[in-house]
Amino acid sequence: MTAFALRDGELFAERVSLAAIAERHGTPCYVYSRASLEGAWRSLDSALAGLPHLVCYAVKANSTLAVLDVFARLGGGFDIVSGGELARVVAAGGDPRRTVFSGVGKSAAEMRAALEADILCFNVESEGELERLDGLARATGRRAPVSLRVNPDVDPKTHPYISTGLKESKFGIPYADAPALYRRAAAMPGIAIRGIDMHIGSQITELGPYREAASKLLGLVDRLAADGLLLEHVDVGGGLGVRYRDEVPVPVADYAALLRELFSGRREKLVLEPGRWLVANAGVLLTRVEYLKRGPGKRFAIVDAAMNDLIRPALYDAWHAVEPVRPRGDVAERWDLVGPVCESADFLALDRALALAPGDLLAIRSAGAYAMAMSSNYNTRPRAAEVMVDGDRAHVVRRRESVDELFASETPLPR
What we know:
By secondary structure, this protein is of the alpha/beta class. The chain has two domains: 4-32 and 280-406, Lyase, Ornithine Decarboxylase, Chain A, domain 1 (Beta Barrel); 34-277, TIM Barrel (Alpha-Beta Barrel). Helices cover 28% and strands 26% of the residues.
């Protein structure tokens, strides 16, 4: 059952009115459901019960401290891609020893911070990164725990911007090069080999690419074992898709069944990096209609949210459902929902059938992933407030920024 549903003609988050949240905290405003976050995590974790595994939430999907706190309390691990994300995990009560560090461009400072925090593993993505990490670890008297992120050259059949497992991608180490680099890593005094990693893309709605990529990865694990190099874990990444419009996501039971089949009888621990699948449909973006503008060929609903708040439609041509918080009984018309930002790409939804009037409150669905995390201050717009609903309570987990804060760190030139 969805955490966002109509009650007596009004949209609620769990047992809290979205209209009441907007009235108290203003718009634009992100609203998350704790029950939805916990339910998604538990459904995946329980589906893998009995199979040694660690669910590492991909922080980049939504790095808000309250979201991280929910997963940390459940005993989850984390997948980070920056030193800033590591700091967020620690601030939210997450365990660095259950944290893997991905990303192609880790700086020396980020590596030092992660070594000091005693993270579970670095997912190394190039020979140069391995060499830098070895030197930094030796300089501090440590051995850096390492997995190599291997690029299996498998097409995930998703948007090209979020396909990461093809040979032309910047991510990972070419499959054919991995055995030699593992042998080299094994000889480095500052490196402790722990596992192997892959991530082929995001918003994947078919099991075929997972099976192909994971099978290739496990074949490589067996080749390494035959050469005497035993790995402790296999990280199959994330990327499981969700429903935004008419997609048919992979049922979690089917995904778990595939992993059970592939890992049955194996000695290595399974690590997963879900992000979008855990958070996307646990959030909505509330926005209010400012003006209705009828042109010769278009009708525009100008709302107070914009591409700086939710960039996915402009960046990926992404589709998000739009629902009035208090639906009208009027005849619907076709509207483009656009924001105040001075860009033609500033749209949140196109050609939607809605009955609207100025002042109406709208909920943009599936806004829990890659939404607030990708927001900006373009046009000197303060970022939105965030609210977490927990049953019949609503907690402000990020207050709205003020304009003064946006340039508090800046200084004009001397007179």
